[in-house]
UniProtKB/TrEMBL annotation:
Entry keywords, A to Z: Kinase, Membrane, Phosphoprotein, Transferase, Transmembrane, Transmembrane helix, Two-component regulatory system
Record-linked InterPro entries: HAMP_dom, HATPase_C_sf, HATPase_dom, His_kinase_dom, HisK_dim/P_dom, HisK_dim/P_sf, Sig_transdc_His_kin-like_C, TCS_sensor_his_kinase
PANTHER family for this protein: SENSOR HISTIDINE KINASE TRCS, SENSOR HISTIDINE KINASE YKOH
EC number: 2.7.13.3
Single GO molecular function: kinase activity
Reactions accelerated catalytically: ATP + protein L-histidine = ADP + protein N-phospho-L-histidine
Stated name of the protein: histidine kinase
Species of origin: Kribbella sancticallisti
One Pfam entry name: HAMP
Localization of this protein: Cell membrane
Residue ranges constituting the HAMP domain according to the UniProt record: 155-208
Length: 453
């Protein structure tokens, strides 16, 4: 990029244009002046000749005729038929003498006389040369005055660019918040200044986002390390204790330590797996969409929960709905929601999975709904309204939480990857407890199933 001074560039460009335009204008003016002067001289000579013819027809005396047609710059010579010559002496036409010869047709004494009208063209050439000098002097003066005016005026004209430069340097120096704030945005400088401000808004917004992301990442890494420290410490303690006890350790004590090793290793593995799932969500999931029956997935989670928590009651309510989704990810969403409800209800509780779609019963069955909803609700203490968004933050634990604090963020990430939503709210029936509403784009509608107990 050529970085020659803009002031110098504009000044030189204006002067070059002026140096080209002034000579062309001067030549045009001189040519017009010369042509007009020539035309005026011919008109004057022909007009005087016509006047002489009129005076001759009026029988004006020769001397009076000469006096009346005499004019500045014109030499009048009248030669009568008898050879008598009146007026100025006859001159021979040359390059500098323009002459008109006329034979008079009227009058007793002027009939047949010869009238010579002579004009010295050197006067016109002198006037042309004078005009040329004036044009040259005025052109030179115009160039000098224009150059000085440009040098002084460019400081004022380029003041907005200086303001942009100063602002850019202040931003580079670390100062934020400055803006040009143009008074008008319908001019070139106004549009440039507005675009400059928009660029600064975007840059500062990106900077704030980057700082927030960096701070969030640091906090997330610190929390993840803290969460991993507990199972790792448990593994280390159990392993060291086993080594210290040796082969002669009591069987009950050895079995207890081995169970601790298995439990803590599973806990650490689960946490690592959840962290990997979050990393995949952040990087962008690749889903394998296929028709999925929600009731079958919900029933599988109910069967699993009856095995791991037999004191809990699980109910599947609603229609057998079809969605186009990734079955593995959808299974993980339901598993996280059901496990979250199990932890919230303690050692025993009632968990309900409601399957519904937004169409009324009178709508034709061939017309599919736009979305379906899966509501997982429990009869636990519920989630306060102030914490209903906070529970979806990473590594956030509730009062009864027994997991890693990553299940709900993972579930919401999978829901959003499917083009759906996941929120926490009150139970639709108004009873105590929490409800997590999963909304997904719907697939083709299937037949109704009776409500399961």
């Amino acid at each position: 990029m050529n970085t020659v001074s803009l002031r110098r560039r504009v000044t030189l460009t204006a002067l070059v244009v002026l140096l080209v335009v002034l000579p062309i204008t001067g030549l045009a003016v001189k040519a017009i002046f010369d042509a007009q002067a020539e035309r005026n001289l011919n008109t004057l000579l022909n007009g005087r000749a016509q006047l002489a013819q009129q005076l001759a027809r009026q029988n004006v005396a020769p001397a009076a005729l000469v006096r009346r047609i005499d004019a500045d710059g014109i030499r009048v010579t009248l030669i009568l038929r008898n050879g008598q010559q009146l007026g100025a002496p006859e001159v021979v036409p040359t390059g500098e003498i323009r002459q008109v010869r006329v034979t008079l047709q009227g009058g007793q004494r002027t009939r047949g006389a010869t009238l010579l009208l002579s004009a010295d063209t050197s006067l016109l050439e002198g006037a042309s040369r004078t005009l040329q000098r004036v044009l040259l002097l005025s052109g030179a003066a115009a160039v000098v005055i224009t150059a000085l005016a440009l040098i002084l005026g460019m400081r004022f004209a380029l003041a907005p660019l200086d303001a942009m430069t100063s602002l850019a340097r202040s931003i580079a120096a670390g100062r934020r918040g400055g803006r040009l704030q143009p008074t008008r945005t319908d001019t070139e400088l106004g549009r440039t200044a507005a675009a400059f401000d928009e660029m600064l808004d975007s840059l500062e917004g990106a900077e704030r986002t980057a700082r927030g992301s960096e701070q969030y990442l640091r906090q997330f890494v610190a929390d993840a390390a803290h969460e991993l420290r507990t199972p790792v410490t448990g593994l280390q303690t159990a392993a060291e204790t086993l080594l210290q006890l040796g082969p002669n350790a009591p069987a009950e004590r050895r079995e207890e330590l081995e169970l601790l090793l298995v439990r803590e290793s599973r806990r650490a593995g689960s946490l690592v797996a959840d962290l990997l799932e979050l990393a995949r969500i952040d990087a962008g999931l690749v889903l394998r969409h296929q028709p999925v029956q929600l009731r079958a997935l919900a029933q599988a989670q109910a069967d699993r929960l009856r095995l791991v928590a037999p004191n809990h009651t699980v109910r599947i309510l609603g229609s057998d709905l079809m969605v186009n989704a990734d079955p593995d990810r959808l299974t993980q969403i339901l598993a996280n929601l059901v496990d979250n409800a199990r932890h919230a209800t303690g050692d025993a509780g009632v968990i309900e999975v409601l399957l519904s779609s937004p169409w009324p019963e009178e709508r034709p069955s061939a017309q599919a709904p736009q979305y379906v909803q899966v509501v997982v609700q429990d009869n636990g203490p519920g989630v306060p309204p102030s914490d209903r968004e906070r529970v979806f933050q990473r590594l956030v634990h509730g009062e009864r939480s027994r997991g890693s604090g990553l299940g709900l963020p993972i579930a919401r990430g999978f829901a959003q990857a499917h083009g759906g939503t996941l929120i926490c709210t009150d139970r639709p029936d108004g009873r105590p407890g929490a409800a997590f509403v999963l909304t997904l784009p719907a697939g083709p509608r299937t037949a109704e199933h009776p409500t399961a107990p």
